[in-house]
Automatic annotation (TrEMBL):
<feature type="compositionally biased region" description="Polar residues">
    <location>
        <begin position="10"/>
        <end position="23"/>
    </location>
</feature>
<protein>
    <submittedName>
        <fullName>Uncharacterized protein</fullName>
    </submittedName>
</protein>
<feature type="region of interest" description="Disordered">
    <location>
        <begin position="1"/>
        <end position="26"/>
    </location>
</feature>
Length: 118
């Protein structure tokens, strides 16, 4: 059973045959599920350094799915929980203005200003 799952995963990430550029709108980009454990600011569970490394690996492996900073920010946010997620939630929920352009700037999110244990 594990071999079957492994082969299916390989097939889903393997490059497909070249396609007509006009049909690119129908091409589906594989976006990985958020990784676990999620970053919660507790370095005993997942350090900030390890969190950034995992993000970098995902962004490199699935490069076509993360072409903009906004796509990277959204994925990074989906890999957070606890204090880090609470820190950014007001911006993403539209409760406060995004003066620092967090939604559009991956480097700003990685700064994690004011977060405990980062």
């Amino acid at each position: 059973m594990q071999n079957l799952v492994h082969r299916l995963c390989e097939q889903s990430t393997a490059p497909s045959a070249p396609e007509n550029r006009s049909s690119s709108a129908h091409h589906r980009i594989h976006v990985p599920h958020p990784f676990t454990p999620a970053f919660n600011g507790d370095s005993k569970v997942l350090s900030f350094r390890a969190f950034k490394a995992k993000l970098n690996v995902v962004f490199q492996r699935f490069e076509s799915a993360f072409e903009t900073d906004t796509q990277c920010v959204n994925y990074a946010l989906s890999c957070m929980t606890g204090p880090p997620l609470e820190h950014y939630a007001p911006v993403f929920n539209g409760e406060v203005s995004d003066d620092e352009m967090i939604v559009e700037n991956y480097d700003t999110v990685l700064a994690l200003n004011g977060l405990p244990n980062s």
